Automatic annotation (TrEMBL):
The keyword ATP-binding is assigned to this record: yes
Example of a GO MF term: ATP binding
Pfam families named in the record: DUF5906
Keywords for the protein's UniProt record, in alphabetical order: ATP-binding, Nucleotide-binding
Domain SF3 helicase: 10-167
InterPro entries, A to Z: Helicase_SF3_DNA-vir (IPR014015), NrS-1_pol-like_helicase (IPR045455), P-loop_NTPase (IPR027417)
Classification via Gene3D superfamilies: P-loop containing nucleotide triphosphate hydrolases
Organism: termite gut metagenome
Name of the protein in question: SF3 helicase domain-containing protein
Phosphoprotein listed as a keyword: no
């Protein structure tokens, strides 16, 4: 639990709900979870490996390049698609992830075989060293949950093995635990529960340069004139 507290911080209950829903309600749509940090020894990769130990063959590790390939039969039927060191800052990559996060069916394709339609219920869980633009997220988007992860203070080279040893007790805990949230959106969680500074940072970076410059100018005017709001017409 200490490791999850490190990852989810003040959003621990939401994080536990996320994991509980993965385990007990696998068909429920969930937001794409993105853990970001430019620093090392944060536990991002360890978390992905911990999930792999829990869900085993029902989780696939993808590279960024896997999303560029037409062949997807190795991951299209998984519950979790994990991406370590994600960098999907091309518009087509971001659109694909965004659309798949709410898709109910998908065309699977293997090399040398015809495409075929399958039920699709995968959740995307990613980590990235890029805090500004690991993926394109625009204002008003509700399909992402982004958390900035701090370094772990006490380094433990055996952390993953320790976490694996606790899996039976952890799953029993999830089985008995009462959810802290209700089904309030297409991605289960009420959107305001998922808003973080890390999400805002990515959204701000993806705004157009002109818009960012205008915001800086307006902000300076408001500070100089000590205004609480600023209105103008176009």
């Amino acid at each position: 639990m200490e490791f999850l507290e490190h990852l989810f911080g003040e959003q621990l209950e939401v994080g536990l709900d996320y994991l509980q829903l993965l385990y007990l309600k696998p068909l429920i749509r969930l937001p794409t979870l993105l853990l970001v940090s430019t620093e090392r020894n944060t536990g991002k990769t360890t978390f992905l490996n911990f999930l792999k130990a829990i869900f085993a063959g029902n989780m696939s590790f993808n590279t960024n390049e896997d999303f560029h390939s037409q062949f997807n039969s190795d991951w299209a039927n998984k519950l979790i698609v994990g991406v370590d060191e994600a960098l999907l800052d091309r518009r087509e990559d971001s659109e694909r992830i965004k659309n798949l996060s709410t898709a109910v069916s998908y065309k699977a394709e293997a090399k040398g075989k015809d495409r075929y339609e399958i039920d699709f219920f995968a959740k995307f869980i990613m980590s990235s060293n890029n805090e500004e633009c690991p993926i394109i997220i625009e204002q008003g988007e509700t399909r992402y949950w982004v958390r900035k992860i701090q370094p772990i203070e006490k380094k433990n080279v055996g952390m993953l093995n320790d976490l694996k040893a606790e899996i039976p007790q952890f799953l029993h805990f999830l089985l008995k635990r009462k959810l802290s949230t209700r089904h309030e959106s297409r991605m289960w969680f009420r959107h305001d529960l998922l808003i973080t500074d890390a999400l805002r940072k990515i959204i701000m970076h993806n705004r157009g340069k002109v818009e960012i410059e205008m915001l800086h100018i307006i902000s300076e005017i408001m500070q100089i004139k000590k205004l609480k709001e600023y209105q103008f017409s176009i």
